[in-house]
């Protein structure tokens, strides 16, 4: 008799835990559905809930802790480019699989799945537009596309954009976010580093402005090439910027690295970055820098002075 009562008590105890777990999972699912509804956004740093609408109005920067949430290329273009001035370039260029590369799946299949999932052809978008009325050529990398990796299409689009900017005498701005060169394209992806760098050198020879904006993360072959070739190099707060990964460096040097290693603040302290600019101030900062570096227009007084100088020289 006692054993039956104990078994009933044990069973009821199990039922109680099961019902509690079930109700807890139900409330968790309900909470996840409410958050996934798109109305709220939970900060990954401080955990504060904010209205998604308010967060977008603040350029996806947490109003509580200042954490810069990652944004896609569409959002970045809306943040930087004046309304109705964006003209995309070279959207017809598509990646191929020249090496017929295969890891866990075929590279061609991986490309197709990524393209269908996020609606982009490759990891960068390029075009012409205006920032506060000033014309620029803009390239925006998108980390959602295979970690923003740099393949042949990324290199070709950026090179064509830079060449177009040189021809039109436009400044160039590239928003960088990347895991580095795309391993599925082997040496072809590494060649893009030299190709883009050569185009930037011709842009520089024409005495034109180039500003890279380093966002989280900017690593690998992108850091080793066009991300560090700017006349002025800007970075977002707390962005991870470097070439090799932290663990690889620690294993190579056999010593512990500082906590702020490979952050924008550390690079600013060591002179690799010119300034750290909050995303909420980025558009105005770029506009001011571009305006300061516009070609000086010759005034009528300068034309008159040059004419008088030439006349007096001829008379002598």
Fourth-tier CATH superfamily name of the largest domain = 2-enoyl-CoA Hydratase, Chain A, domain 1
Largest sheet: 7 strands, mixed
Tell me which oligomeric state these chains represent.
single chain
* Shape, principal axes of CA atoms: globular
Overall number of domains: 2
Please state how the strands of the largest beta sheet are arranged side by side: 3-4-5-6-7-8-9
The helix/strand series, from N terminus to C terminus, equals HEEHHEHEEHEHEHEHHEHH
Radius of gyration: 27 Å
Structural class: alpha/beta
Q: So how many helices?
A: 11
CATH class of the largest domain: Alpha Beta
Helix content: 40-55%
Low-confidence stretches: 297-316
The CATH topology name of the largest domain reads 2-enoyl-CoA Hydratase, Chain A, domain 1
What percentage of amino acids are in beta strands? 5-15%
């Amino acid at each position: 008799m006692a054993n039956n009562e104990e078994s009933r008590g044990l069973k009821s105890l199990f039922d109680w835990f099961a019902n509690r777990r079930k109700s807890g999972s139900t409330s968790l699912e309900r909470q996840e559905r409410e958050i996934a509804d798109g109305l709220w956004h939970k900060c990954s740093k401080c955990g504060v809930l904010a209205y998604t609408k308010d967060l977008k109005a603040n350029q996806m920067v947490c109003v509580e802790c200042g954490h810069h949430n990652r944004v896609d290329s569409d959002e970045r273009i809306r943040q930087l480019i004046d309304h109705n001035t964006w003209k995309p370039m070279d959207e017809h260029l598509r990646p191929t699989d020249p090496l017929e590369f295969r890891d866990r799946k075929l590279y061609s299949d991986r490309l197709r799945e990524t393209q269908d999932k996020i609606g982009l052809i490759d990891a960068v978008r390029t075009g012409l537009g205006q920032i506060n009325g000033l014309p620029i050529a803009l390239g925006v990398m998108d980390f959602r596309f295979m970690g923003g990796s740099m393949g042949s299409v990324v290199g070709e689009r950026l090179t064509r954009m830079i060449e177009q900017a040189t021809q039109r005498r436009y400044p160039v701005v590239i928003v960088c976010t990347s895991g580095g060169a795309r391993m599925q394209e082997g040496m072809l992806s590494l060649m893009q580093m030299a190709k883009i760098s050569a185009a930037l050198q011709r842009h520089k020879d024409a005495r034109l402005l180039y500003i890279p904006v380093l966002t989280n993360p900017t690593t690998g072959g992108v850091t080793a090439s066009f991300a560090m070739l700017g006349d002025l190099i800007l970075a977002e707060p707390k962005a991870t910027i470097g070439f090799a990964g932290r663990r690889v460096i620690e294993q190579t040097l056999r010593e512990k690295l500082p906590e702020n290693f490979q952050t924008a603040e550390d690079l600013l302290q060591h002179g690799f970055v010119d300034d750290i600019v909050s995303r909420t101030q980025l558009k105005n900062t770029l506009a001011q820098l571009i305006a300061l570096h516009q070609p000086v227009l010759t005034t009528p007084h300068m034309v008159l002075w040059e004419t008088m100088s030439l006349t007096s020289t001829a008379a002598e």
